Amino acid sequence: MAFINPPVxxxxxxxxxxxxxxxxxxxAVCKVILSIINSMAVLPNRFxxxxxxNNDYFKTYYQPLGIIRVTVEKAWGFAxxxxxxxKKLFSKLTRASPDCYAKxxxxxxxxxxxxxxxNTTTPTWNETHDFVVTDFDQCITVNVxxxxxxxxxxxxxxxxxxxxxxxxxxxxxxxxxxxxxxxDGKLSLSCQFFQFAADGSSFSASNxxxxxxxxGLLTVLVAGAFGIKxxxxxxxxxxxxxxxxxxxxxxxxKTDAPGxxxxxxxxxxQFRILVTADMVxxxxxxxxxxxxxxxxxxxxxxxPFTDLLRAPNxxxxxxxxVGNGTTVRASIRLSGVKAATMQExxxxxxxx
Length: 352
Description:
Blueprint: H1 23-41, H2 57-60, E1 66-76, H3 85-94, E2 100-106, E3 112-113, E4 124-133, E5 139-146, E6 153-161, H4 162-167, E7 171-178, E8 181-197, E9 216-226, E10 237-243, E11 247-250, E12 266-275, E13 287-293, E14 296-303, H5 305-310, E15 315-323, E16 326-339
Antiparallel strand pairs: 1-4, 1-8, 2-3, 2-5, 5-6, 7-8, 8-16, 9-12, 9-16, 10-11, 10-13, 13-14, 15-16
């Protein structure tokens, strides 16, 4: 279960908590709650409920569609209406203009900010960043803000969807909205879509090299572990997936409880690693899958990157032996990217 886009949250506190209805407190509380919701149940994150014990996680996992390469070009037309009263007065005295940057969000992917363009009401960025796309109805939101000491002033918000901008040939001029009202401000945005494919040619392509650009995606699905030895009351198993020193992920730690086979625990969790050009090539590090009991490693298996490149469809799906008779059922999928239109992209099919 998941939201395609972050939900709109409005809280109304009553009784002794009525003081929280003040805009500053209300906004802070909403921000914390939304961050929790986004991290759990906004695409690409999902809240997984296994109704059928026989469900095969590998067949029902919803693979992402590709990446959207977003270029924030420029903004104009907002002049001084975005500034606070104090800053307007300062601007009149000094003839200073806003110091603007743009913050871009796609679903619950990590936010990205452009550089700050100082003292201008017509900032030009032409800066690019890649985001993973899980659904074509995901929103692309761009917040233009005026950098200030203490807290930044909102200039305007522009919103479109992946589908809308791709249907417009990848380029749109969006109106800026501030405090729920349209302004005269405009933002120019351009996008290019790349579909994930079992093709490693993008790993060395020059147009996928650079800060903020992706050349692929590595997805690891962990279904479960089998044959963990030990007394039930002494076991708290989990699985750790790592790639080099920078990427380490751990499943939930299981505890002995009714309905749980602690010696053969099910995890059904996914991990993603965004692949950049500096991570692949002749010096690419091996992946490691390790089974843990609390903080102690039971055993592990190394998966050379070259094995992934040579595997059918660049996917290894197996029970990986980690030692001591223990295996971990996992699927490791490496994907490159290739330019595509929305019409050329086949939506993934889920099977039971």
